[in-house]
Amino acid sequence: MKYKRSERLVYMTQYLISKPNQLVPLTLFVERFNQAKSSISEDIRIIKDVFENDGIGNVQTTAGAGGGVTFHPKINIDRADEIVERFMGVLNAQDRLLPGGYLYMSDIMGDPVMMNDIGELITTMYGDEEIDAVVTVATKGISLANAVARKLNVPVAVIRKDNKVTEGSTVSVNYVSGSTRKIETMVLSKRTLKENSKVLVVDDFLRAGGSITGVIHLMEEFNAAVVGVSVLVEAKQVENRRFKDYTSLLKVSEIDEYNQSFLVEQGNCLEYIKNKSNKD
Amino acid sequence: MKYKRSERLVYMTQYLISKPNQLVPLTLFVERFNQAKSSISEDIRIIKDVFENDGIGNVQTTAGAGGGVTFHPKINIDRADEIVERFMGVLNAQDRLLPGGYLYMSDIMGDPVMMNDIGELITTMYGDEEIDAVVTVATKGISLANAVARKLNVPVAVIRKDNKVTEGSTVSVNYVSGSTRKIETMVLSKRTLKENSKVLVVDDFLRAGGSITGVIHLMEEFNAAVVGVSVLVEAKQVENRRFKDYTSLLKVSEIDEYNQSFLVEQGNCLEYIKNKSNKD
Fold first, then answer.
1. Could you give the CA distance from residue B252 to residue B91 in angstroms, rounded to a whole number?
2. ipTM at complex level
3. Domains along chain B?
4. What residues of chain B lie within 8 A of the CB of A149, using their CB?
5. Which of A30, A107, B59, B132 gives 20 to 30 Å between its CA and that of A211?
6. Locate the Bacterial purine repressor N-terminal domain: which residues (chains A, B) (predicted)?
7. Cβ contact, residue pair A46, B149, below 8 Å
8. How far is the C-alpha of A29 from the C-alpha of B268, rounded, in Å?
9. How far apart, in Å, are the Cα atoms of B117 and each of A154, B58, B74, B82, B238?
C-alpha cells in the first residue's frame, strides 16, 4: 500500500507529539510507509518548521545509523505568558482563602488542561538541562510532577510523609515545617530513585520552604543533584528561605483573612524563559 | 500569508491530539489559516481517516453554527493487548514482592509512558460513557487518575486518608480496610466534586475491595453516580467483594512470600474492549 504525504504527516505528527523527548529512528517511518529515507526526511522538515514557527517545540534530527528525530516540547514566550495569566485569573478568587491563610488549590491541581499547559511551561524552562527524574512531595505535588515528567519523558519519584508498606525499604529525613514549626518526616522508597540522579523538584506551594529544604536534604541521601526547583505559587513576604534558586509561576502576598483578600502577582518564570531564549 | 495543506495538517493534528474530548470549532482553523471551510473540512477528513485506520482515535465532526471537530482517543484491540502484555512483563518481577505479600508498584505509577498508555486504554473502555470526573484515592492512584483524566478531559478528585487544612471543608466516611481489617477514614473536599456528578473510579491495586467500597459510600454522600471502577491490578482469590462490576488490567494470585513467587494473568479489560467494539 502507498501512503500520501498528507497521511504520513498526520501519522508522524501525532507520533512525535505523543513521544516527547524520545529519539524516534527514521527507519521506523521508512519501514511503516515503505518510503525512501529522503522523503521521510522531507516530511520531518515540514513538521519541524510548523512546530518551531508555532511555538510548539523543537524537532531535532540526528544523522547516522542510530540517527532519528526527537521532539522537544518548548512553548514561546507569548504562550507562556498566556498560561501564567490564565492561572492568575483562576487563582485570583476570594473564596480560595482558607482558615490559617492557606489557599485552596486542589481544583487547579486536578485540572488536566491546566496541569498539561503548566507542564509544558516548566519543561520549557528546564528542558535543556539533563534531568533523570522529577521529584515531588505527596499529595498535591503529584499531579504537577506527572504533567512535567510526561513532557520531559522521565520518571516521577514521590516523597511521602508517611511510611507505607507498599514502598519497600525507604530513606527518611526529618525537617522543620516552616509554617507550623513542627518537626516532620519525609520518606522516599530506595527503589524509586537511582543513586546519583539529576532531579527537578516541583511542588504546588512554597511557603517558608521547610518541605523543599527537606527534599533537598533527602536528595543528598540519594547523592542526587538538584538541577532546579519550580513551584506553582510562592508566598511573597517570606525571607529566610534555606535555598535561593527556584522558579515560580505566581506570587501571593498580603493575605488578609479578616477581609478575605490577598494579592496575586507573576512569579519569575517568564523572566527565566526570556533570559534563557536570549542566551540561546 | 498562505499555508500549504501539509502545514495545516501538521498544525491541526497536534492541536487535536493535545485537546482530547474537546469540541474545537472549525472557524478556529478557518480563521487561523484564512482558508475556506470546505478545505479545512477536507483536512479534517484526512486526519480522521489516519486516526481511525491507525487506531489512534475517532474524529467526530458536528455540523452547524456551533459545529466543530472533537478527537476521542480510542485505541484498537491490538494496541490494548500490547499495553497489557508490556505491563505484565514489567509487573512480573520477583523482586516486586514485599513483606506481607504486597507488590511494589511505585516505579510503574511513576512511569509517564506506561501511565499515558494505560490512560488511553482505560479511556477506550469508558470514553463513551458520560463522565464528569475521575475519582481516586491518594497516594498511588493519583498518577493513574491524571493519565485517564487527561484523555477524558475531565477533572480529577483525590480522596485523602488524612484531613489537610488546605482542603477546606470536607466530607468523610469510615471504612473497613479489607486487608488489615482496621477501621479507616477517607475524606474528600466538598469543592473538589460537584453534587450529582458521574464519576469513574480508578486505583492501582484491588485487594479485598475495602477502600473502593469506601469510595463508593463517599460518592453516595456527594450524590455521585459511579459509572465504572477500573484498577491496574487485582488480587485474584479474593471472593467477598462488596461490588462486582469493575475492570482490571492484570490479576495477581498465588502470592508465595516464602518462595518469593506469584502468578500474573490478564484481567478482564481486553474482553471488555472486545465486547464493546462488537456492540458498536
1. 10
2. 0.95
3. 5-73 (1.10.10.10), 77-279 (3.40.50.2020)
4. 110, 112
5. A107
6. 4-73
7. no
8. 33
9. 15, 17, 11, 10, 28
